[in-house]
Amino acid sequence: METNNKLTILIEGVSGGGKSSSFQDIPVDLQKHVLFLNAEGKELPFAHDFCEFKITDPHQVTAAINRIIEGKPFKHKSGEEIHPKLVALDSFTFLMDQFVSLYINTAEDTRGAWGDYASFIRTLMLEKVAKLRIPFVATTHILQSDDMEHMEKVSRAAIQGGIGKGNGLESYFTTVVYAKQLRLKDIEPFLADATMLTLTEEEKFDEKKHVFVTRPAKQHSGDRIKSPRGMFSTKDLYMDNSIPQLITHINNFYQG
Question: What are 25-44's pLDDT values in tens digits?
Fold first, then answer.
């Protein structure tokens, strides 16, 4: 399932894996042009100047995307009107939990309401986000389970309903990476050749680092990581958990 917008990115991971903090590297002069749709109900773990909106109803996200498509500006907290250059949704999991609370748990026709749930995601991604000409980056929590046939842990986006159990939320995105905190000894074999992996003094001291996992390699075969063939080489299995660096890499891939 493809969208017309090639810059649809899903960041998966457990709580504390570095999903939200991956937005921290966005340059300060560009932050006010980031439309940050916060459905988590908590503050981001770093200071920022994003054009942030607290989402309390999933339809607010649809309305925001429609506004971008129509070319209408948003008002930044400074009072300046801005046209977003990036849309961030944090997180898809909490957004759809809101849908369940507002529209399924209170519905007389629960079966019909679950159909509306699935339709909401399809419409948002295939009819709204697909029309954007700017990056759309969403985060999602994960559900983990045991695959006894292959004797491994498997994970998927924590989304309820048939979409969560079937092809998954991942099928609506062109690129899916996994945000993880790894021990340095697991990363060290890749450091010499990696083009997007660096270590700070704090990371060296802590002997841990937050990364994006970019390929479904053997040690991550149970994660629903995906990207167009050839986008990430084997030496870039791990990269810094940096949204700007990820978007730049994806843009460079498509531009040849």
Answer: 999 999 999 999 999 988 88
Q: Contacts by 185-190 with C-beta closer than 8 Å and gap 24+?
A: 187/211, 187/238, 190/235, 190/237, 190/238
- Please state, in angstroms and rounded to a whole number, the distance separating the CA atoms of residues 66 and 61: 9
CB 10 within 8 A of CB 212: no
Cβ 8 vs Cβ 139: under 8 Å: no
pTM over 0.85: yes
CA nearest 14: which of 151, 185, 156?
Answer: 156
CB half-sphere exposure, 65, CA atoms < 13 A: 22
| Alpha-carbon gap, residue 194 to 111, rounded angstroms | 49
Cis peptide upstream of residue 20 (ω within 30 degrees of 0): no
Nearest of 238, 119, 256 to residue 188 by alpha carbon: 238
Say if residue 15 is exposed, middle or buried (CB neighbours under 10 Å; 0-12, 13-18, 19+). Answer: exposed
- How sure is the predictor about 154, in pLDDT bands with cuts at 50, 70 and 90? low
Give the largest Cα separation in the chain, rounded: 59
Burial per residue of 196-216, b for 16 or more beta-carbon CB atoms within 10 angstroms, e otherwise: bbeeeeeeeeeeebbbbbbbb
Amino acid at 20: S
CA–CA gap between residue 241 and residue 196 (Å, rounded): 9
Query: Where do the domains of the chain lie, and which CATH numbers do they carry?
Result: 8-177+243-255 (3.40.50)
